Amino acid sequence: MVKDRAAPQSQPLWTLRSLEWAAVASVILVLIIVFTRQMEVLRGQAELASIRATLSALRTALIIDYVHKNVTPGQSAGALSKVNPFNLLQRRPVNYLGEMTPAQAQAAPPGSWVFDPVCVCVGYLPMNPQWFDSPRGDVMAWFELSGTVGPLQLTPKQAYVWQGQVMD
After folding, report:
1. What's the pLDDT band for 6 if we cut at 50, 70, 90?
2. Which of 55, 61, 75, 128 keeps 20 to 30 A from 162, CA to CA?
3. How far, in Å, CA of 114 to CA of 100, rounded?
């Protein structure tokens, strides 16, 4: 006897298994989006930490230079001049490009440090400008050398904010 073969039946478009896979794919997509966003925030925090470390190194170099000039015989505190603080470092940062005007500095690659000898300022061009806020809308953070008594100070020209934190 020959068995009757049943005609193939069409499968429904959304089976329970395909709904489960769609839910898993949706959860994975949401996790990827959240992870990517958190990585961007973390990248911005790392850049701020790098900025603060460089500024700290420059400030420390200015203090050491001041102490050295006051302790060394034959040099006086009056010998202090508005020098490029990057020249006081034992090793310059790899992203230091040298002396530039503000116009030249804005054309520099993101994440670069520069020194403007006219204003006697240190400038930084952020890698992630979306995290940087300047009261005047500047695209760079500028820190000027100032002081006549004691070591030179490196102070921000404006109240810059980075991811809600004051840059100083």
Report:
1. low
2. 61
3. 6
The pair of three-digit structure tokens given for residue 69, joined into one six-digit string = 């000039």
Neighbours of 130 (CB within 10 A): 9
> Token pair for residue 146?
């100032």
pLDDT value at residue 83: 85
Cα-based angle 155, 159, 162 (whole degrees, multiple of 5): 105
Other C-beta atoms lying within 10 Å of the C-beta of residue 27 = 10
Report how far residue 133's alpha carbon sits from residue 165's, in angstroms, rounded to the nearest whole number.
Answer: 10
Half-sphere exposure of 18 (CA within 13 A, CB side): 5
What pLDDT shows up at residue 118? 92
pLDDT of residue 122: 96
pTM for the whole thing? Answer: 0.78
Residue 79: Cβ-neighbour burial (10 angstroms; 0-12, 13-18, 19+): exposed
- Triad 118, 105, 122: Cα angle to 5°: 55
Single-letter residue type at 17: R
